[in-house]
Amino acid sequence: MGDSDADRGSFVPDVDLSRPSDARIYDLFLGGKNNFEVDRQLFQQILKIAPETPALARENRRWLADIVRRMVRPGGIDQFLDLGAGLPTEENTHELVLKADPRATVVYVDKDPTVIAHGQALLADDNRSHFAGADLADPAAVLANPVVSRVLELDRPVGLILALVLHQLPDTARVREIVAAYVSALPSGSCLAITHASNPRDGSRLAEFATAVEDKFRDAFPSISFRTPDEIASLFEGVELLEPGLVGLSDWWPDDERQVSRSGAGSLVLAGLARKP
Questions:
Q1: Contact between 119 and 41 (Cβ < 8 Å)
Q2: Residue ranges of the alpha helices (H) in 152-204?
Q3: Is 242:259 a contact under the CB 8 Å cutoff?
Q4: Keywords of this protein's UniProt record, alphabetized (predicted)?
Q5: Do 54 and 31 form a contact (C-beta atoms < 8 A)?
Q6: Domain for residue 237, yes or no?
Q7: Is residue 8 one of the residues assigned to a domain?
């Protein structure tokens, strides 16, 4: 994209190879190769508990493609902010967006050092897609980032994407504040798209399964927090959920288009797309 390091407003700390990275783990779920032995060890441990997890990750990418199409047409949105974007993989957000509207613009935001390095390299010569190294948990800093403030026109609708990232933040009240701060900064007609790891915490078999997966992740990522459906629903305060509402990824599509089962890992992730009135 031709931005200087200073203009990117990015920070690129050293990569810690002694600890797994959630971005690299997710990349493994999608069949990617940007990972290290420490990531592969945790990946194998998760597969023993939830072998459907890679299929769920692919379903999350399928959801991303669907909500992008809906935001572009008929939503009329031509600028997107993808927070906690993760490592480049097949059908990245900017590829999906530009396929739907070649004139659209995408800004990725992530703080993971591996993601920053790969993201900036991938987008170096792309005039429609941009990368900002920043922490999504600080909305004011993200919105003031030189890339974000230069590329996005916040007086026009924006598609805000938070795909499987908010579970990394442990304080639900703070997460609500973070999402509300972004929504407040966006004009009417903007859209909010969220997928979030869920745990009903109701004593059910699904809750026991979700807790086992959550605990395994927490060994490496102490701040991880799966949330109840009510807690996830509260993130959509002030916006109007669009069809099919807030549902499990397995229920995002009609029965004849479902690719993961409603049981097990298929119910671990809730998805929603909403519009700001």
A1: no
A2: 172-185
A3: no
A4: Methyltransferase, Transferase
A5: yes
A6: yes
A7: no
Helix pair angle (22-29, 53-72), 10° resolution: 90
Contact present, 232 and 246 (Cβ < 8 Å): yes
Low-confidence ranges of the chain (pLDDT < 70): 1-17, 88-90, 119, 122-125, 256, 259, 261-265
The predicted structure's pLDDT at residue 21: 79
Residue 22 contacts residue 168 (beta carbons within 8 Å): yes
Number of domains into which the chain is organized: 1
d(CA 181, CA 25): 28
Does a structural domain hold residue 103? yes
2, part of any domain: no
Domain carrying residue 186 = 16-275
Tokens encoding 196: 């979030």
Q: What is the CA radius of gyration of the chain?
A: 18
Find the CATH number of the domain harbouring 56: 3.40.50.150
Give per-residue pLDDT as tens, 2-38. 343 333 444 444 566 678 877 788 878 888 877 889 8
pLDDT value of residue 1: 35
